[in-house]
Amino acid sequence: MALPRFLVDSIRTEQPISLPEAEAHHASRVLRLETGDSCILFDGQGNQGFGTVKTVEKRSVQIVCENIEFAPRDHSDRLHFAIAMPKGDRQRNVIEKLVELGVDRLTLLETHRSVSKFDEDGIDKLRRYVMEACKQCQRNRLMQVEPVVPWDKWLKAHASEAIILHPKALISLPPESSSATLDSPIIEHNNFLQTYTNASLPSNFILRFAVGPEGGFTDEEIRLAIDHSMKLLDLGERILRVETAVSLAAVLGSLTIN
Predict the structure, then answer these.
(1) Is 219 in contact with 91 (CB distance < 8 Å)?
(2) Rounded distance, CA 183 to CA 221, Å?
(3) CA distance 76 to 104
């Protein structure tokens, strides 16, 4: 059985570390840890340490930590997603897939068909999902969740180096745009790895994917993306839900930049 994992602000070996209140409650009341039990602490910055429970009180748990190591288990800030998030519990599902597959950064997109609106509380909730997913998958650096950005503003900043996920069948492009090369706006999913491997990407290349809402990007949004030199990744004949498209693209991205 995997050791329980707790998120702390920093890890040190010189003196005991007090768990944050929520983590202490989970350790003492839910997991019912006792003095001498083993656990792992991580700081969300990529470090982890193996620890032993020193004291357990009603609202306080102290851990003595040793053997600190840097093990982020992500892609070193090279795999980014911008997503018009779905509603409700599906947001947690999307976050879990992104975290498990090593995505480094998520930007929340505002598009014409966006169905979810995010205030600070909503963004904080997504960040809690990130923390929970990191604890589950043993990732030690938190995926960054950035505030909402309108589609046109995001395009101006990142379009020339990004890829949009959208079915080719749902747009109208000139026949000469159909070949899977870096000179074409469209890349077929089965040619993605070969296309980007042949491109001789630099070691610091950041791969960015944009994913639309459940209703998809509008024709105008797609044309605007292509006008900004954005590539379009066609994931096949079937229309995928957001969390499925995200998972597939994250796997492709991981294979590309590793």
Answers:
(1) no
(2) 20
(3) 7
Query: In this predicted model, what pLDDT tens digit does every residue of 114-142 receive, in sequence order?
Result: 999 999 999 999 999 999 999 999 999 99
Q: What is the DSSP letter of 28?
A: I
205-248: per-residue pLDDT in tens?
899 999 999 888 998 999 899 889 898 998 888 888 999 999 99
How far is Cα 105 from Cα 247, in angstroms, rounded to an integer?
A: 14
Residue 48 belongs to domain spanning: 5-70
Quote the CA–CA distance of 75 and 139 in Å, as a whole number.
11
Element (H, E) at 154: helix 151-158
Whether 26 and 93 share a structural domain: no
Q: Tell me phi and psi for residue 250, to 5 degrees.
A: -65, -40
E strands, the chain, are: 5-7, 17-18, 38-42, 47-56, 61-70, 79-83, 105-110, 144-150, 162-165, 186-188, 207-211, 231-234
Q: What is the mean pLDDT of the chain?
A: 89
Q: Is the pLDDT of residue 180 over 50?
A: no
Q: Of 41 and 184, which is predicted with more confidence? A: 41
CA distance 85 to 214: 8
Two structure tokens written together for 255:
């294979």
Half-sphere exposure of 55 (CA within 13 A, CB side): 9
Is the separation of the CB atoms in 187 and 198 below 8 Å? no
Q: What is the largest CA-CA distance in the chain?
A: 69
Q: Which of 50, 70, 90 is the last residue of a domain?
A: 70
- Regarding whether 209 and 156 lie in a shared domain, the answer is yes
| pTM, full prediction | 0.89
CATH number at residue 53: 2.40.240.20
Note whether 139 and 73 are within 8 A (CB): yes
